[in-house]
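Retry 2 of 3 after timeout on previous attempt. Resubmitting structure tokens to design endpoint.
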């Protein structure tokens, strides 16, 4: 099933996870930050995706695993591209990952995109994702959380085992970072930590000990967006989640995100999304 952002947020709020098919190339082109843990399994077509400035190629059989807080943009997507997505809330992910070793995630996220060439391994992962999709459509169960946590736990074990078996055959990714890369990575980290209170480019430039002009140059080079646009997309992503999940009033959200008042938040949000906060919340 193909879904929009509102459907996804609603299902994650209700179930703690969602499995869906993404078949809309147009919706993948913008820069975004992952809010949840995600596993993508490409089922057709091709794409080039950029994760925190590193490019990866996707084709049928490619698996991509991402933690929250990753900057993502699809640089190119074929018309026949399709991927199955497992998106897991932070609460569900934490409960599902109990008992898994940290080293597993170090290996999975170190080089998060890989092609599953073994048909049995690919079938295993496809079936596990499909079981999660089917379970969403079944009546409520007293053991719902046990099934969800257990299956997600097993999915990550399967991904880790597949990745581990491949490591002896795949050369490690050799990446050299420039000073601009370092500044941009630090910029993204600072936004994630401070964007609720600080919306202006000058604050981040000062923290990085560079000029706002140079920060804009770096941002345009690395993300093809201005520094202000990158900050805005972070804030909008967080506010969308607040509107759909938190239940807080728009006035409270405005206060929490350091806007002068509800009207200021409304103007900011509508300029970025084309909708008022109230209208966006009603789409839930």
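Retry 2 succeeded. Sequence:
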């Amino acid at each position: 099933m193909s879904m929009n952002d509102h459907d996804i947020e609603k299902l994650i709020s209700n179930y703690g996870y969602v499995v869906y098919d993404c078949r809309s190339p147009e919706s993948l082109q913008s820069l975004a930050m992952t809010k949840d843990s995600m596993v993508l399994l490409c089922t057709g077509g091709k794409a080039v995706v950029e994760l925190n400035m590193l490019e990866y190629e996707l084709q049928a059989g490619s698996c991509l695993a991402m933690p929250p807080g990753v900057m993502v943009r699809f640089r190119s997507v074929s018309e026949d591209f399709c991927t199955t997505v497992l998106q897991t809330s932070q609460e569900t992910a934490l409960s599902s990952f109990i008992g898994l070793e940290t080293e597993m995630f170090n290996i999975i996220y170190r080089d998060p995109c890989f092609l599953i060439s073994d048909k049995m391994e690919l079938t295993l992962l496809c079936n596990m994702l499909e079981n999660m999709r089917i379970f969403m459509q079944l009546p409520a169960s007293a053991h719902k959380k046990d099934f969800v946590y257990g299956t997600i736990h097993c999915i990550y074990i399967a991904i880790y085992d597949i990745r581990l078996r491949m490591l002896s055959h795949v050369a490690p990714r050799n990446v050299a970072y420039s000073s601009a890369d370092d500044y941009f990575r630090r910029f993204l980290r600072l936004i994630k930590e401070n964007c609720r209170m600080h919306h202006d480019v000058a604050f981040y430039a000062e923290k990085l000990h560079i000029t706002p002009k140079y920060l804009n140059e770096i941002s345009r080079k690395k993300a093809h967006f201005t520094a202000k646009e990158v900050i805005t997309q972070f804030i909008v992503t967080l506010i969308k989640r607040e509107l759909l999940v938190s239940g807080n009033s728009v006035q409270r959200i405005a206060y929490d995100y350091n806007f002068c008042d509800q009207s200021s938040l409304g103007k900011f949000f509508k300029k970025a999304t084309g909708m008022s906060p109230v209208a966006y919340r009603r789409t839930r």
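Attempt log closed. The chain has a mean pLDDT of 86.
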